[in-house]
Prior knowledge:
By secondary structure, the chain is α/β, with parallel strands linked by helices. The chain has helices at 53-68, 76-87, 95-115, 119-122, 146-159, 174-188, 204-214, 231-240, 253-262, 278-291, 304-315, 339-342, 370-376, and strands at 3-20, 26-39, 44-49, 130-137, 164-168, 193-197, 222-223, 245-247, 268-269, 295-296, 331-334, 355-357. The protein contains 13 helices and twelve strands. Helix 2 (76-87) runs antiparallel to helix 3 and helix 6 (174-188) runs parallel beside helix 7. 49% of the residues are buried.
Amino acid sequence: MKVTGITCHVLQAKVDRPFTSARGWVYGTRSSCVVEIATDEGITGWGECYGPAAVNKALIETQYAPRVVGRDPFDVEAVWEDLYNRIKDYGAQGFSITALSGIDIALWDIMGRAVGKPIHKLIGGAYRTEVQAYATGLYFIDMNRLVEEAVEEALAYKSQGFRAIKMKIGLGDPKLDHRRVAAVREAIGPEVALAVDANHCFSVPQAIRLGRMLEPLDLMWFEEPISPEDHDGYAEVTRALDIAVAGGENDFTRWGFRDIIAKKAMDIVQPDVCAAGGISEMRKIATLASAFGVECVPHAWGSAIGLAATVQFLAALPDQPPALRPMPPMLEFEQTPNPLRDILATEPIVQRGGIVAVPAGPGLGIEIDREVLNRFKVA
């Protein structure tokens, strides 16, 4: 089997109610670079790249595609190493890796389709046939009802069966952040797990101060408290707090995670399959984390393709640690409006009672609706 062509689809969908986080970016649209790889045997694979879609498309078309066409998809890791070594002098992280991630996912999809097996069967087998999902939401929408809207949204997720929720913080006022989180905790009760995500908006002293204020609220983790470049700062925050500290969605490849994991700068690493290097590199990052006793709970943000790839990876990720009643890694099921997540697949991945079934079909386990793909395609 040989790759005969790579097509990048830039998709964009408007959001009815724009939302923002501590970064101050207003999300009025959702977009994605979807990678389609064709083969001479008529098998097509799909992948997705994290981040600005047009940049990923340009990188793939100019730097990667000429080196992938003609290759055997089953040489996926050899292809990965070739592409990485082609580009690392100019960018060993960032867009060069997000673009590579989309290609890697598509090649794994092709392999699964070729042998009639889901990806998780190709990367070690199923530790589980379903995953517990946590709802990511509670962004900032109505700045005059920040506390009330957070409580309402959290209660809606609880009523849908979610047993874990992640909410945004970072309003520039630690007392307001604390009041908002405390109100959500009181509303959902102690039986629903709660995490907070600051989108790296704090300094080290600010993160420690707010973290200590939040400790009595029984949080799962404090995500991205500080800038992702500051690994020593992460270690300082992690040592100072009793709350687990998480991060890593803005880190790339095994080399990017190596020092974070080795120095235990975070309690939980959160690589994104569409950003960190695809399925191939996620396996290596998770192995590093396991060797150092660091939890791996992947970040997920994107279309149905990225969601499916994350679920496939989670199915093959061992319990951390193994136990009579283990706490398996959870799926981030982002809940902001996104038709690229909800209707791009002919049979969307859904949660029922906070649980998502692992797709058992070949490859990613989903089929792409080309009518939807073409409806949202802008380039």
